[in-house]
Design a protein that fits this description.
This protein is mainly alpha-helical. The chain has one domain (about 5-74). Helix content is about 90%, strand content about 0%. The chain contains 2 helices and no strands. The protein has helices at about 5-30, 35-74. The two termini are about 15 Å apart.
Length: about 70
């Protein structure tokens, strides 16, 4: 832990997760403009799942870095 590869992996995970969370959030907002209720339901739930998975990726990377830095100080 703490090597260049470890930091790179966590930063890439966080950046990719933020990217997909942004796309999911924008698509989630655009789902409210749909006229067909079935399309709305499919888009809403698929983008909600995508958003939740992306948030988990961000939380994972942040917690990994937090615990590494906390262990370093202690």
């Amino acid at each position: 832990m703490g090597s260049l590869l470890w930091w790179t992996k966590n930063i890439v995970i966080a950046v990719v997760a933020v990217f997909f969370a942004t796309i999911a959030f924008l698509n989630l907002i655009s789902a409210y403009q749909m006229k067909n209720p079935l399309e709305f339901i499919m888009t809403f739930f698929s983008q909600s799942l995508m958003l939740m998975i992306s948030v988990v990726g961000v939380i994972y990377a942040v917690l990994q870095m937090y615990y590494y830095l906390k262990k370093d100080k202690g």
